[in-house]
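Dear Dr. H.,

I hope your travels went smoothly. While you were away I took the liberty of generating a structure for the chain from your last submission, since the lab meeting agenda had it listed for discussion. I wanted you to have the full record in hand beforehand rather than looking at slides cold. The sequence, exactly as received, is reproduced here:
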Amino acid sequence: MSSFPVSGSPRVDPSAPLTRGVGGTCVLVVDDEADTRETLREAVEMVGCTAVLAANGADALRLLRERKPCLMVLDLIMPVMTGEELLDILRQQAALAHLPVLISTSAPQRAPAGIPVLPKPIDLAAFWAWIRQNCHCNAS
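The corresponding predicted structure, in token form, is as follows:
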């Protein structure tokens, strides 16, 4: 059991499950706290998606190139490369500039304008709704 606080109903919408993205991954979860990464991975899997995990922006950048997920959940305050630094790099790369990003942070006031934010603790219903609205792996 992880220590990351999660709010919202643990019930999953039984609608059709999403399919996996390129490389077998729908969602890239980027957070420096291991418990948070694992909790978000579990939440992603509850809606039928798969997740790949990164502990910082540098690891995330490598995984974005290798796995090509269709969504990213991003913490802002991390060592090595912050979420803000990663976002700046993404905006400069045509192949990654339009990747849907959700900021998951304990400092929502630091989030850049125009990017959706779910403050920690995460509201699961809102998190799942964002995944379902933005995942293009299931564009069938």
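Two observations you may find useful: Residues 30 and 134 are 17 Å apart (CA to CA). The domain at 24-134 is CATH 3.40.50.2300 (Rossmann fold).

With kind regards,
E. W.
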